[in-house]
Write a structure and sequence with these properties.
This protein has about 110 residues and is mostly helical. It contains 3 helices and no strands.
């Protein structure tokens, strides 16, 4: 409508009487209104973000605990296969005499 009890034409701005001018501040402080609104919004987002960060952190911890055994098993099998391959190559490079005679190390 057009401002409550003020008569006027529909679709036109409301008619403001002189008594109503006293209720309107001399200068609208849109910056402070916007700032307060942004602060409220940021506080809400921060609370939500804090919860989301905690949930992601717990999820990552749980995932790492669950994936530790298969990953460590895979890693150890790779290291062991390299050790066996290097030992096999060392044995192949030995001559027949070296294979039969154990070396005495001090």
């Amino acid at each position: 409508m057009n401002g409550g009890n003020s008569p006027g034409i529909p679709g036109e701005p409301p008619v403001i009487h002189e008594r109503d001018w006293k209720k309107i501040p001399a200068r609208w402080d849109f910056d402070s209104i916007r700032e307060k609104s942004m602060k409220r919004t940021l506080k809400k987002l921060f609370k939500k973000d804090k919860l989301n960060v905690m949930l992601v952190f717990v999820f990552i911890i749980g995932l790492s605990v669950m994936l530790y055994p298969p990953i460590s098993s895979y890693w150890n099998s790779k290291v062991q296969s390299r050790a066996v391959a290097s030992y096999s190559n060392a044995v192949k490079s030995l001559t027949e005499e070296e294979k039969l005679i154990p070396t005495m190390k001090n």
